[in-house]
Structure formats: structure tokens, C-alpha cells
Amino acid sequence: MKEDFLHHIWKFKRWETPVLKTTDGEEITIVKSGEHNFDAGPDFFNAQLKIGDNKWAGNVEIHVKSSDWMAHKHQFDKSYDNVILHVVYQHNQEILDKNGVAIPTLELAPIIKQELVNQYQNLVNAKSWIPCENQLKKVDTFIVNNWLDRLAIERLERKSEEIEATLHQNKNDWEATFYEYLFKYLGLKVNALPFQLLAKNTPLKIAGKHQNQLSIEALYFGQAGFLEADLSDEYFLKLKKEYQFLKAKFQLTPLDNSLWKLLRLRPSNFPTIRIAQLSDLINRTPRLFAAVLSSNSIKEIEKLFQATASIYWNTHYLFGKKGKDDKAKNLGKTSINNIIINVVVPILFVYAKQKNNETINLKALSYLEVLPSENNAIIKKWEQLGVKSNSALQSQSLLELKNNYCSQKKCLNCSIGNNLLKQ
């Protein structure tokens, strides 16, 4: 038995009796069950109850056992002085308030159906991919879709916290913040950290001062630590010479080259190719966030990120190692979509919130609605369970549901889990 299940019982009044009574036999009438508190302090604030002949306004505290009050040392915490009802699964000890008067107690065990307890335990103890895997089809499609719509916004709100922290570190510089997130997501999960470090180590104000791709490539490859080797490759030597000049001019320090990972990456996703593509992006549009803000369609946004690595990379994936093929290394459609989903939309969402601009907010969400669904292992598994994703908005919702609800067994905070418990 867990307290969060008892929170659910109290919040949704899931007991099998028309009349509630305290352990002393006094009748309880709930006028207002209170506001669920997810932080420190009593579990429900500002409840309104009638106990016996007396009307009370205050807080409700919930425990598995009455004795948990003492175990949690609430008797020493003044924030619990205004508790008007102690709700417990099992009443095993009388609890007194600061004046030595017994706190009214409601015992839930005798008034909850065992079937409901079993259903909850089946969910939280399930070993399947998601707790409700075998019961998901019992839930009405409208409930599932409505919940997914809410999760899309919740995911953006959660991402907003990190973006706002980065924006604060960058002294409210939107271009610098966008620049950092662009680097992070072009690096994929494998190289997200070194790309973030590269962005921080090579500020946009330095990169934006150069008007040719060779200088920008020299700057990024040098800062990434890729120009430390001793090679006779002609293009490599050009970049190395240019970087030595830039390094001295701006007093730069390169990253340790060992940070970069190549293992299990497709050659087209090697950091060398990504850096060359980034160089083209920054060379063409150094103020990318301003360009994003002025765009009015998904086609305009996609065009902004159509980058091509310099011609040297047509025949190379690494410096000094010529490959068999000879073709332009363009930033692919999937990568561009990934940037829009994880960089463009969340940062526009934060910008709209801070500027109180509903038009930009709706524009950001519309981009997710028209982009195709992401195609990864999680989305494929949802499809096997009968939940198909038709857009990036839906795939983002399904990722949020799996990672932040199902995997953490937060069934009581999930509309799907709540619906199953009501059944």
C-alpha cells in the first residue's frame, strides 16, 4: 500500500459507503476535499469539512498507518498544526494535536473495495512494457486522445524549465540560447554533451563575425579538437592554419578530442559531418532564431535548416580518410524534423509565454501538428498496442506518456490509469 493510492481514494471519493465516520463514530461531511499538495506539508490544503456538529476549514494529512504521523515527525512541524482530518488506511494509534486533543481520523481499509486495491496493485506491480498493457483496449479512444493532447503541452512545459534556465545563464540572449540547443540536438544522444560544450566554448558572437565557411569550419573543428593531429591532408592543413590564427586572436581553448564518439554511428552522423553542416548553417544565417521568428510556415522553417557540408566532405567522413562514395552531405529530412521538434518548437513556446504572444504559441504547435510522427522504438511499440501516432504532436505525447508516466508507474496521475481504476 502506498500513500499516493490513498491520495487518489480521498481525491476521487472512492469508498463504498454513503456515510463517512471518524474512528470515534462522528459523521464526516465533505464540503471541499482540498487542493492536492505535491510539495512539502500536508497532503491537501484548504479543505472544508463538517465533523459531527462542527464545521472545519484546514488541511488533510494522509498516511498508510496512523503511527506514520509520529514516524514522519509531524508533531514537531508547525505546518501540520492546522490538520483537521487524518486519513489513514489502517488506524493503529491515536494522534494528538499540539493541545493534546485527538485529531479526527478516517480509516479507509473497511470502506474500500478489495477489488479496487487489487486493480491498483496489478498496475504498479506489472512487469509489462507499460503497466496497463493488457487493459489498454478497455479505455475509450476519446479519453486516450484527450490525455495525449494534454501531455503534448505538459512535455513543452517541462522542456521550458531547462530552456528558461539556459536563457537566464545567457542573460536573456535568445540567439545564444537557440544556438546552444541547435548544437545539442544535431549531436544526437551520443554526442549531445560534446556538442553542447562546443557551443559554449565557441560563442555565437565569435562565429558570427566570419563571412566565409572555411573560417567557420576552422573555428569549429579547431575548438572541437579535430585539428590537433599531424596530417598531410591539404584541406586539413588549411583549416589548421586558419584556426591557429583564430585561436590566438580570440584566446581560444579547444576541447579534448576524446569526448567525441563514433562507435555505432552511421558515417553520415559522424561529428565531423555535423560540424561541417553546422558551419554552413551559421555561415548562411548567423541569427537563426530571428529567422525562425519571422518564418510563417513549416516550409520556410525547413528551408532554413537545409545545410550542406563543404565539398571536401563529399568524399570524406573523417580528416585524411577518403571514402568510396562522392556525394554531397546534406542535412537529412529526419535531422531537420528533429531540430524543429526539439529546438524550434520548444524555444518558440517559451518565447511566446514570456512575451504573452498567443499567435506565436499557436504557430509553434501547428508545426508539430503538420510534421510526421517520429519513428523510434517507443512509437513502434505504442503502434503494436493499438495507439497509432499520426503527427509529431502525437509522438511527443506518447514519448512523454511512456517515459514520465508508464516507466515511473505514475498510473494514479494518468487519465488512462484513473479510467481503469474507475472501471
Characterization of this structure:
With 423 residues, the protein is an alpha+beta fold. It has 2 domains: 3-112, no CATH class; 170-370, no CATH class. It contains 17 helices and 9 strands. It has helices at residues 3-12, 68-71, 114-124, 141-169, 174-186, 188-201, 204-207, 213-223, 234-250, 271-284, 288-294, 298-304, 333-355, 358-370, 377-384, 392-406, 415-422, and strands at residues 20-21, 27-32, 35-36, 44-51, 54-65, 83-90, 105-107, 316-318, 321-322. Strands 1, 2, 3, 4, 5, 6 and 7 form a 7-stranded mixed β-sheet that branches. A two-stranded antiparallel ribbon has the order 8-9. Strand 1 and strand 2 form a beta hairpin. Helix 13 runs antiparallel to helix 14. The longest helix has 29 residues, at 141-169. The protein is elongated and about 90 Å long. It starts with a helix and ends with a helix.
Strand/helix succession: HEEEEEHEEHHHHHHHHHHEEHHHHH
Main sheet specs? 7 strands, mixed
Q: Quick check: average pLDDT? A: 94
Q: What count of structural domains?
A: 2
Shape: elongated
Structure, briefly:
With 423 residues, this protein is of the alpha+beta class.
Provide the fold topology.
Layout lengths: L2 H10 L7 E2 L5 E6 L2 E2 L7 E8 L2 E12 L2 H4 L11 E8 L14 E3 L6 H11 L16 H29 L4 H13 L1 H14 L2 H4 L5 H11 L10 H17 L20 H14 L3 H7 L3 H7 L11 E3 L2 E2 L10 H23 L2 H13 L6 H8 L7 H15 L8 H8 L1
Helix pairs in contact: 3-17, 4-13, 4-16, 5-6, 5-13, 8-9, 8-10, 13-14
